[in-house]
Amino acid sequence: MMANHHDHSHGHDHHEEHEQLKVLGFWIFVVTDCILFGTLFATYAVMMHSFAGGPTGKELFELPGIIASTFILLTSSFTSGLAVLAMNKGKVKELIAWLAVTAVLGLAFVVLEVNEFTHLMHEGATMATSGFWSAFFTLVGTHGLHVSVGLFWMVALMMQLKRRGINAVTRRKVTNLSLYWHFLDVVWIFLFTVVYLMGVM
Amino acid sequence: MWEDIKDFASTFFVTGDPLIYGADVSIVLTMLAIVFVLTKYKKWGWLWREWLTTVDHKRIGIMYLIASLLMLFRGGVDALLMRLQLAFPNLEFLHADHYNAIFTTHGTIMILFMAMPMMFGLFNMVVPLQIGARDVAYPFLNALSFWLFFLGAMLFNLSFVIGGSPDAGWLSYPPLSQNDFSPGPGQNFWIWGIQISGIGSLATGINFIVTILKMRAPGMTLSKMPLFSWSVLSSSIMIIFAFPILTITIALLFLDRFAGAHFFTMDGGGNPMMYLNLIWMWGHPEVYIVVVPAFGIFSEVVATFSRKRIFGYKSMVWALMAIAIASFFTWAHHFFTMGTSASVIAFFAISTMVIAIPTGVKVFNWLFTMFRGRISFKQPMLWTIAFIPCFLVGGATGVMLAVAPADYQYHNSYFLIAHFHQVLIGGVVFGYLAGIYYWWPKLFGFKLDEKLGRWGFWFWNIGFYICFMPQYALGFMGMTRRYYTYGWDRGWEDLNLVSTVGAFMMGIGFIFQVWQITYSIKHGERDTTGDPWDARTLEWSIPSPAPFYNFAVVPNVKDSDDWWATKQAKANGTYKEEPVHLEPIHMPKNSGIPIIMSTFWFLIGFGFTFGWVWMAVVGFIGVAVCMWVRSFQYDTDYYVPVDEVRRTEASLGRVL
After folding, report:
1. Which CATH architecture has domain B43-651?
2. pLDDT at residue number B581
3. pTM to 2 decimals?
């Protein structure tokens, strides 16, 4: 995005260059997070039929709610993209507003997930029920935890934007946050397919 | 009330063993001594400002080094206790349970709390200097990595006197490591000690990849980068792919133990073999993670002390990267006996043997570098030369183990024990020691004494072969690992006694090295040139010890052995002096957050270890608050004015 900052003079350019370094580091962090989810998906694949006589996914999953939360998360990914567009146009108020919309959608997603988990527990599927449910709660829960951490980060970032406006540092932070948010969206697509769709088929 | 406290204390503290009581007393005395000295000489402020909050990669490297040497001592004492117990048949020096705890902590400490931090210490001490950078890419994160490692290591070591040590083997295979067979906090210490330090390792991997890719001095293309930095890149790439697997694996084991999940249990649809697969998907790359930087060190040392350019630079780089990739396709050779299909076993047997090819390329390149070189046998070179035959035999026995049908005979026998100690001591430890001797003057400004070092060297080396060669034979004679005792009827007593003698010789070698360090602090040869070995790469172009900003002027690199080329040009009179243009230097500010945040992580680990969820919650809140506060800090850097740079350089004897 900022390819013209290659000279090694000090001052503002130096700052900008340093911020770019942090975006690269965040990309690599996302790679490690991919491996992390990959390991959880592999575990889930191994445990996919380990019901140990307990309830199966097919019996308990309620797809309409899951489809709703899928659309909510996808929309939030779109609004976080709009936030970045607003930032590139230099409109700080619009940026904060889109981030707020993203956060509300994210919160709705987390609330729906918590509801789903409580419902499943009432139906008698807990972490300790069988290998399948252990893998299910861990995989889906890790994704939910990531979304929650993202919300915490988003709130901190909105406060900083309000105080400091758009500068090299806040721009880098918004870039990383939206990268993170899109990444969680992609993970959810896989999760929705592998866990829920293949689960009820 | 008093009864409650007594009850609590009798389970909380480890009791009933005179060895442990001795350790309790010495720990308390050491702590008191440290507090006394710091208070008496009013050094608390100094300690906080200069060390505990530092973000300087050289100081972080030194702290890693100190911590890893302490852990080498502890892991070494564990080893000697085991060898004492096995010296004669039917000894009752250690009981079975105690022996189990000791082989567990020995393995865990040596790999995760000795080899890893010693490696990170070398990364930190060398890489930025070698590539002409002023610090790593993320100095704050670097400090956080260190403190996460350190507090993770301390949490693990605490198990020794509080709660009881883990005793399910260094990789804690289930079902033995599950609640049914390992109740109590010991196994939890293992999980959380490794989990916390593992997060730090992952962050270090990211940090050094970005540092190497983005912070090289102008002109230093990747094809001109010194081989140690290449090896660090290779190792860091393996870290970012392997460590997330470890994080998940032990998180799942924790969920089994804490939340009653069924990942690795015998019932409820769990699968213990899944743990073995997962842990070795991390574990096998892990051994290459630690050995590859040692290869990098040998490459630097061989070139410097043969006074020749390294032979086959490109093939060296190719080999480092080939090892990094291949390391992820060999994990199942750790359990050929699991009984999968023949084709799976054949795949892993062949992929394991394939690793010998790039490794062989490297060995030949080191030998060809020495060929017709003017070799000087200084300490770093001694360890390098000792490494080659040792690693050759270790590698050859590794290929023997890779022969799957034969492995059914060797599996988990002392043959295996001898093999991996030969590659880990002969490769990793010899390599890191070579690196420490080589770069010591750059960090501390003096050389380590040659004479004491040679005593240490010969004790280590002769001791090594006396200790481990008999173990190959013992393996063939049917002795399997983790036996805590054996009878006279087995015929193993002679070789075991010989092996114990060898282990103690290595212990004596270590004592010589500690003596060498303490002696050299006062009497070691001072390095006033900054280039005591007449070496080849950039780190030797600056004064020793390096100033905190490393390079007053960032060098312009033209050659793969740039400093050597500069020296040659100066000698030939073809060197063109470039005008010195000093600029204010951009540096990161110190921060107390890394150590505070890591302490909260320690609370999380300690809380979960004892099942005190409230404490873990306090820890999580603390971590969140630390991240919040850090996120709101914008004033994190400063500029060193030109005047100060000029003054510092002048005090180091360099006029600019």
Report:
1. Up-down Bundle (1.20)
2. 86
3. 0.95
